[in-house]
Write a structure and sequence with these properties.
It contains 2 helices and no strands. The protein folds into 2 domains: about 1-40; about 45-95. It has helices at about 1-40, 45-109. It is rod-shaped. It is mainly alpha-helical and about 110 residues long.
Amino acid sequence: MRYLRIGIGCLFLTVILALAGCGGKSADEKKAKANQQQSNQPSVIDQELKKQYQMYKEMRQYQLEQQIKAEEEVKKKEEQSKKQEKESKKQEIKSDKSSGGKEEGEKSK
């Protein structure tokens, strides 16, 4: 009788363990399906992150454009100052020649 109880208990235990193992597989499948569905539909956090990243890209692009414009303005100002400097040197040379020629003529007299 004692061995009969032990045998029935072992049989009952194996049946329970077998059923418990089968339930785990279906739960894993359900989790996998749920994860797959979630991956197909972007979460709210993902959407917000995409929006923020897009805004960052736009801001960075604007900053780059402004930087390029500022550099171009600096180059233009430098070119203008160089032109003005050349013109002023030319005028100085012309004025030196015209005034220098008169002074030399006066010195020779």
